[in-house]
Design a protein that fits this description.
By secondary structure, the chain is of the alpha/beta class. Helix content is 35%, strand content 17%. It has two domains: 35-61 and 320-412, Alpha-Beta Complex (Aspartate Aminotransferase, domain 1), CATH 3.90.1150.10; 70-316, 3-Layer(aba) Sandwich (Aspartate Aminotransferase, domain 2), CATH 3.40.640.10. α3 (62-72) runs antiparallel to α11, α4 packs parallel to α11 (303-316) and α12 runs parallel beside α14. The termini are far apart. It binds pyridoxal-5'-phosphate. Pyridoxal-5'-phosphate is lined by residues 52, 120-122, 125, 154-156, 206, 210-211, 239, 241-242, 267.
Length: 413
Amino acid sequence: MSAVVAPIDHIAVAERRGAHNYHPLPVVVASGEGAWVTDVDGRRYLDCLAAYSALNLGHSHPRLIAAAHEQLDRLTLVSRAFHHDRMAGFLAGLADLVGPLVRAEGPGGTGEAMVLPMNTGAEAVESAIKIARKYAHDVRGIEVPEIVVADSNFHGRTTTIVSFSTDPDARDGFGPFTPGFVVVPYGDAEALAEALTERTAAVLLEPIQGEAGVVTPPEGYLARVRELTAERGVLFIADEIQSGLARTGTTLAIEHDGVRPDLVTLGKALGGGVVPVSAVVGSSEVLGVLTPGTHGSTFGGNPLATAVATEVVDMLADGSWQERSRVAGERLHAGLHALVGHGLTAVRGRGLWAGLDVDPAIGPARLVAERLMERGILAKDTHTRTLRLAPPLVITDAEIDWLLEQLRESLAA
Ligand code: PLP
């Protein structure tokens, strides 16, 4: 006789036993494939968040899952105390993909890009901050360097990173804060110019501010930031953790502005939605300030992570994912713009990435996310009024049209 086991109330357990640092939609996902997930009751949903762009290549991509399985059976971790046979392919592949998009020339460099492998996005940003400070100290002789950042930024959750957040939820109560950051308005090149001093080591920006609501900067802003920083020997760090790796129709979002930063931080999609993988990419001159013992990570660049990330990088090498994002993004944005004045007050973004401002008369964006969930679509609100769409890049034209139809009905409901 088999015992009757009561089904687990996943949401109740999560609320009772899990820290309340998230407010998830009431759905319990059990499996995923491509652009779709299935919940514990067998209901299917079109995933229009894609784990904040970590699933750019879709759920359970067969090539990534095969790479992970193969590696799991062979070798998962050695630490950086020894070399392993998956590292070289990853480093060379990522340097080839992103190296040409960063400023690799420099007096002390070889003209080639280098890669620092880490795990999470916040770690990549922390690493970039450390590299920029060390470069300022060792190469430019700056004793107390400063880093200029933008308001409404989101670069992660560590103590140092929240020190320069302007979001009270992210920052308040977590002090004392790390000094050495100057905040300027996003998109205002003149304010940034005024903030640059003899002590400025770097400017750290998101080429499109994701968590702020997919905010795109004014035309010419990033190019002007590049000019201002290059003139002064200040490093330009582009945080492409959410915007990078084909999300906006190009490998990096900053390519749209014809700008090559000194350092790029990558994360999320680099791990193919399988494992956390992040990296800093920059010139050998700048990354060369790191020497043995100055920085590290037990898991950074581990065999499992690099096996998967090497496949991700290889899949992005011929530009077809970027092209798909660009073309599908045009379809999505055309449909979204038609909803401005019909429940939306503004639409921003690029490629398959959009921030939609919901008309306050309808209610908060969370309400629209809940209505979409009832219709089989998962999306996420940010900052009360904005709904964010970032579907996996495998979404089809028919699915985009269906999403637009469900959105139109949810806004009209
Ligand atoms: N930087 C940007 C631009 C991000 O959007 C995020 C996460 O949303 C991070 C950094 C932090 O990444 P992680 O959550 O992997 O630490």
